[in-house]
Write a structure and sequence with these properties.
Blueprint (H helix, E strand, L loop, with lengths): L1 H23 L6 E13 L9 E9 L5 E9 L5 E9 L1 E7 L6 E7 L3 E3 L2 E4 L5 H4 L3 H7 L1
Parallel strand pairs: 1-7, 1-8
Antiparallel strand pairs: 1-4, 2-3, 2-5, 5-6
Length: 142
């Protein structure tokens, strides 16, 4: 009986630790055929941000755990909606830019077959050159 209790405790610890490692691991592998969608709205009105530029810094995990990055671009439609197809990704970093507003930044987003990320832009000053600055992406991933 004592051995059974010890085995149950060890099994429970193994399950809990594997779940913990899964949540803190930087990625859980590449996902294929991703549809990234979302809406961009202006604050405080909540109106759609029409013709807002969207940049996706896409990261792909290779067997040797080295990331490669690519940039994908699109713009929002009259409803503030954007959609972009991504062939392969493990995680991504998304930005939204519209003149007269502060650049919207997502942080790291894990790839899933149906991924959604929405932005609420606030009025302010941003330079377009910072919209495409990739340095922040490398700093976050490392």
């Amino acid at each position: 009986m004592k051995r059974l209790k010890i085995f149950a405790v060890i099994l429970l610890i193994g399950i809990i630790s594997s779940g913990f490692l899964y949540t803190i691991w930087p990625n859980d592998g590449n996902c294929e055929n991703i549809t990234l969608t979302g809406y961009v709205h202006e604050q405080p009105t909540g109106k759609p941000a029409v013709n807002c530029s969207i940049a996706v810094f896409n990261c792909i995990n290779h067997d040797d755990k080295v990331f490669s990055e690519s940039k994908l671009f699109t713009t929002t439609d009259s409803g503030g909606y954007y959609e972009i197809e991504i062939e392969k990704s493990c995680q991504m970093y998304i930005r939204a830019y519209k003149e007269g507003y502060v650049i919207g930044r997502s942080g790291i987003v894990r790839a899933a077959p149906e991924t959604e990320y929405n932005f609420m832009l606030t009025k302010g000053f941003s330079k377009k050159k910072y919209f495409l600055k990739q340095q922040e992406v490398s700093e976050i991933i490392q």
